[in-house]
Automatic annotation (TrEMBL), chains A, B:
PANTHER family: NICOTINAMIDE-NUCLEOTIDE AMIDOHYDROLASE PNCC, NMN AMIDOHYDROLASE-LIKE PROTEIN YFAY. Belongs to the CinA family. InterPro entries: CinA, CinA-like_C, CinA_C, CinA_KH, Competence-induced_CinA, MoaB/Mog-like_dom_sf, MoaB/Mog_dom. Residues 4-170 form the MoaB/Mog domain. This is Putative competence-damage inducible protein. It holds the Pfam family CinA_KH.
Length: 409, 409
């Protein structure tokens, strides 16, 4: 089955935003055993969108569009596709009510053009949008599958995974497992698994570098599920032997969620004190639903003054060793731990740049400290990259060290 | 003049790399007054590349390809294009020598397939590649301009700027301005500017929704720079009249940077206290280099206990009005303001979900409060979306309200 991905929107063809949808969808399709031969982007123009659809119908079996499902006039995807295929647009009562509800909940008056979103081509089915107003559409006609997804990435990705995959999955087994690694670079890692890659034609092993971590994706394909699973598990066994201390998890469960679950198990409350990350560790942790079970508070002490006032860091320590030092990191973590009902604290102090680096304290130097009532463990790190990248890598490493600490308890 | 950008390579269509070339080239073309209507990506397949070229020749005046110019067998761009246009491939002596030189300089023996790069279609001209071995190609035939650029981004971008721009630049101007808006939805906004859209064929007005904000892009085209600028400024003037209280800036300067600059001007130090955003406001602010000039500290009080201990929120207030209430927001902001050297504080407390929503306090209900020594201004908001989206919208709105406050001081 051949796929074409069509992204619709002048914001793409004028180059004002990057087309990340085509990459996302084609890599997902590949995992399902569906090959993508074409990516097409076109501006918000009725005639040109229609031409694009006609071309795609001639060369692809499955056509996935993103964008142009919203309420505004330049949202014309389903209108054009219906017209191109000679189908009527029919309004769906449930969706109509749903849209009205969303607005009444927000006690806002609904602009009438929002009702546009309740229309779908005859014979098609809506795809649920659990976080936005624009539903997707699935249409099957003359052995062609046409899938229309909304433009916002979060809505598109959620809909693809929850609604689209079950509709297009085929009787062919593709099993994917991911091994998640922190603390070793992608190129170094790749060299150490060269012997595994291309060893077995049914098994694809690929590495993907993310900020501060690497994902090793193992894709197995074949008719027999058990055989594939065995092969994959063998690869994972070898990876565990080679990279044991670097592997933090599997199948892309975020490191902060792993830490969250470990804390829940032992019923520990944690607090963070951050300097150079400015609240990033805390905000990443707070993305987790129900985090309040283990997360009590965090303090961002950006100035030295704040470090002293909020965490009781000693002025002599700051003078003698500097704000970016092991000693300061330890005093920060211990200072926070003095608060009530905290079992564990993590502190971060470092130089994110672009300024503030020196010969012996370069940009990217970061000290972490993990403290409990009975011990403090300082950790020194050096990261490269720009300010944002150093902050991201610091946060990721902080969670990685917390996981290690909690497992060794 | 209409452009189509064609990126060739299976690494793109399989989703293993992101297609950044099309964005780069189309935004550059726009600055030159050339509109891109189509982006096409295709895998390394002779037949399909040929089909793609034929389609492009029918609908675009200028075709820019990237990739497939290298020495290996799956580099087939110029071979296919020559064949499609019925042109011979001829070897160029100078380039041939140049390639030999590069290898002798590296004193490496040259793989013979490198000489492939010395061939070009008859009647075409080479484009100099100052940092790689694969030259680009410029071909003009039947009023169509065809430009072939190498795949590596650095080579492609350098070649585009140094070699391509002089060849395609036209006596034609494009000016783009953006108006950035917070607090009014895209659909509502568009209904209120319907009369401006399509009013003047030289002016394109498009709205782009981002999380919690909307960008209105105004693109002017024409021979006379002053006339375009006047037309754009007139549109902006009207937008200012209609949406004055919602416009926070122009040309996509992030709202937090606008707040940062306003604080610098009056030499104010700010602190944040966050509950439902869990440090997001603080971490977004801390992305800004040099933020320490205006940012002192921030406190994430996730538990009620922390709200009382860190910010001195009254237990009666929490009991009587709840943690998510105007009263608590005010006490949080004032509590933080008691710290030394803070001129301004912003507090956030709300329900980000997925749990914790009730009839009269639904998910998405958020209270902000901005406090200075002499006054406290609470603000009530309702946001929709999932947990992450509510947190993002809250942070964006917080900066928006800070800007408003600082301007009205």
């Amino acid at each position: 089955m051949i796929a074409e991905i069509i992204t619709i929107g002048s914001e793409i063809t004028t180059g004002s935003i990057l087309n990340t949808h085509s990459k996302y969808i084609s890599s997902k399709l590949l995992e399902l055993g569906i090959e993508t031969y074409y990516h097409t982007s076109v501006d918000d123009n009725k005639k040109r969108v229609s031409d694009i659809i006609n071309i795609a119908l001639q060369r692809a079996d499955i056509i996935i569009t993103t964008g142009g499902l919203g309420p505004t006039d330049d949202d014309l995807t389903k209108e054009v596709i219906s017209e191109t295929l000679g189908l009527e647009l029919i309004s769906d009562k449930d969706i109509e009510d749903n849209i009205r509800n969303i607005f009444s909940k927000l006690d806002k008056t609904m602009p009438t053009n929002n009702l546009k979103q309740a229309f779908k081509p005859e014979g098609s089915q809506f795809l649920k949008n659990s976080i936005g107003t624009a539903p997707g559409i699935f249409l099957s006609k003359d052995n062609k599958k046409i899938i229309m997804l909304p433009g916002p990435s979060k809505e598109m990705e959620l809909m693809f995974n929850n609604e689209v995959i079950p509709l297009i999955h085929e009787d062919y087994n593709i099993i994917i497992k991911s091994v998640n690694i922190i603390g070793i670079g992608e190129s170094q890692l790749e060299m150490k698994i060269k012997d595994l890659i291309n060893k077995d034609s049914d098994i694809i092993i690929a590495t993907f570098a993310k900020e501060g971590e690497v994902e090793v994706k193992i894709i197995g394909k074949g008719k027999n599920k058990d055989i594939i699973e065995n092969k994959i598990n063998n690869v994972i066994k070898i990876l565990k032997q080679r990279f044991h201390e670097y592997i933090y998890g599997f199948d892309n469960i975020p490191i902060e969620i792993i830490v969250f679950n470990l804390l829940k198990e032992i019923n520990y409350k944690i607090g963070f004190c951050e300097s150079c990350t400015g609240g990033l560790i805390s905000s990443r942790f707070s993305r987790i639903p129900g985090v309040s079970q283990v997360f009590d508070r965090s303090i961002v002490t950006y100035s030295n003054n704040a470090k002293m006032e909020e965490l009781g860091v000693n002025s002599n320590t700051l003078e003698k060793y500097g704000a970016v030092s092991e000693e300061t990191a330890i005093e920060m973590a211990n200072g926070l731990l003095n608060r009530d009902n905290l079992d564990l604290s993590l502190s971060v102090t470092g130089i994110a740049g672009p300024d503030g680096g020196t010969e012996e304290k370069p940009i990217g130097l970061v000290y972490l400290c993990i403290s409990t009532k009975d011990k403090s463990i300082p950790i020194k790190c050096n990261f490269n990259g720009n300010r944002e990248s150093i902050q991201n890598k610091t946060a990721t490493r902080a969670f990685f060290e917390l996981r290690k600490f909690l497992l060794n308890k």
